[in-house]
Amino acid sequence: MLTDSQIQLFRDRLTESFFITPQDAEYAEAIKRWNDVGERRAVSYRTPNVPSTLMLTSLAYQGGIILATSAEDISVAMKLAVDIQLDVAVRGGGHSHFAASSTDGGIVIDLRNMNNVTINEATNVVTVQGGALWSDVDETLGQKGLAAVGGTVNHTGVGGLTLGGGYGWLSGQYGLAIDNLLSAKVVLAEGSIVTASATSHQDLFWAIRGGGGNFGVAVEFVFQAYEKPDNVFAGMLVYTLDKVPEIAKFLNGWSSNQQRNECVLLAVVAPPPQNQPAIAVVPFYDGPEHAARDRFSKLIAIGPIADGTSMLAYSKVNSLLLDGAKHGGRKFQAGTVWEPPFVLAQLDQVIHEFRGMLEAYPETAGSAVIFQFDHPEKIASVPHDATAFANRGNHRLAMVEVKFGSRDLDDVALKYAKRIVQIIKGWDNGGPGRERGVKIYSNYATGDEDPRQIFGSNFERLAEIKKVYDPGNVFNKWFPISPCQRSLG
User: What's the short name of a Pfam family annotated to this entry (predicted)?
Assistant: First the structure.
């Protein structure tokens, strides 16, 4: 809710960054998000409640987008935004399912132009600006024979994935993205620029490792990377539904003896042109081809209708799922955890519900039910309270993503996403995997969950830290944490 004169004030005080409004040619592209559900116009015509020193005459009130280029400009923008009492959102990769990077009538701090990636080759430490995508990281590291724990889709933003935890193909060996985060530079609500690490602002460092964007604008991340000079084995296998019993049997045996350097993603999908239910399986093995094919030979022998497995550079692995994760369209997701083994009757129930959705609403054919087989031991070895991330345990992730075109199907799509997840939540195969953690990965959550459900027993400490770093609750788009009335200490 800005006046024209206040917009000019932003433009005058920003040294390198651009402030754009709906009147600017770049605006329409700048508000686009990976998920159309998350797109907001950032325009309002309500009278703002602002200090008299900043209330200037204008014909209309509107929001805007700051295409940021430096932490210093973001500091200036935050000071002005807080003074004017503007709603603030931060866009990294714009990949949020539920508008966490958008605002109605406020300002968006858009980091897309802050995407540099630099490597210290002596230590294999990589410094990544907050607007970088994982493709930027993968490609830069790959040129030096290195890799870092990142997402499984490379057009995801580094910031959002990391602040929420960060699972990836290498998590079995090295843990979550936050477990490899050495430090982060953060612009606070009142404009201070601080570095959070194990030796500086330790409470903030604890909070941002799983606590999301609730504490400031993360403009830089420093990660430990690892040597990955050799190719890895990966690719997509597609099967008809009659192969489900054999696939489940293989995965149950394989997962009981899973190695840390391997993982599998299984998805119930409906690929074009038939748009009928099928099974997609993506095996991953960080090692030589002969060893990989030995581990997955029985899976391949089941007889896929398509086999895209091969040896490829690790930097290319995160592009394997891009066809199923395209920009645009409307999407709803819901997530939970589960624990092997697959029980065939349970998996059939999920497929039955998925098929029913497709038959009733053919426009949902791009949807998927995803089961991840990340080796959990390294992730679970970190104490539950060592970081804010609250979902460590000997379990695996499951996520339902319902894709569709028209907003008329919003309620239906959300209903199906939640219904299928409820089926998976009901699985109980008698193992210990669900005894720890909040049983939901925040980056796979729907967005309407209570923050206490996301952060579990870590919530109270997060609320205390929120009081220190963002007492005005300026950053409130992603499972917002209300500041605790008592401060730390």
Answer: BBE
Spatial distance between the Cα atoms of 288 and 105, rounded to a whole number of angstroms: 53
Q: Pick the residue with more confidence: 98 or 94?
A: 94
In sequence order, what are the residues at sequence separation of 6 or more whose Cβ sits closer than 8 angstroms to the Cβ of residue 255?
Answer: 264, 340, 341, 373
Peptide bond into 229 cis (omega under 30): no
The token duo for 161 is 């994935």
DSSP annotation of 294 reads H
Pair 224, 232: CB distance under 8 Å: no
pLDDT tens-digit map of 187-227: 999 999 999 999 999 999 999 999 999 999 999 999 999 99
Tokens 């204008």 sit on residue: 58
- Tokens linked to 253: 């045996």
DSSP codes joined into one string, 323-357: GGS-SSSEEEEEEEEE-SPPPHHHHHHHHHHHHHH
Model confidence pLDDT, tens digit, residues 290-342: 999 999 999 999 999 999 999 999 999 999 999 999 999 999 999 999 999 99
**CATH architecture of the domain with residue range 117-228:** 2-Layer Sandwich (3.30)
Task: Enter the CATH code of domain 232-312+328-444.
Answer: 3.40.462.20
- Exposure on the CB side of residue 417, measured as CA atoms within 13 A: 29
Closest listed residue to residue 311, CA positions, set 235, 228, 236, 226 = 235
The DSSP 8-state label assigned to residue 36 in this structure reads: G
**Residue linked to tokens 């699985």:** 427
Tokens of 13: 């005080």
Global pTM reads: 0.93
CATH architecture of 2-110: 2-Layer Sandwich (3.30)
In angstroms, the CA 374 to CA 21 distance is 43
Specify burial of residue 359 (Cβ count, 10 A radius: 0-12, 13-18, 19+). Answer: exposed
Q: What is the mean pLDDT of residues 381-408?
A: 96
Q: Which two tokens stand for residue 430?
A: 């008698």
* Domain boundaries for CATH 3.30.43.10 within the chain: 2-110
Which pLDDT score, from 0 to 100, does residue 4 have? 85
Q: Locate CATH 3.40.462.20 in the chain.
A: 232-312+328-444
Count of C-beta atoms within a 10 Å radius of residue 219:
25
Return the closest-CA partner of residue 479 out of 442, 430, 437: 442
Structure token digits, residue 157: 């933003």
Q: What is the reported pLDDT for 42? A: 56
The per-residue pLDDT for range 240-270, each reduced to its tens digit, is: 999 999 999 999 999 999 999 999 999 999 9
Pairing of strands 107-110, 64-67: parallel
| Residue whose token pair is 């404009």 | 191
Which of helix, strand or coil describes residue 101? coil
End-to-end CA distance of the chain: 37
Dihedral, 201, 379, 260, 347 alpha carbons, nearest 10: -140
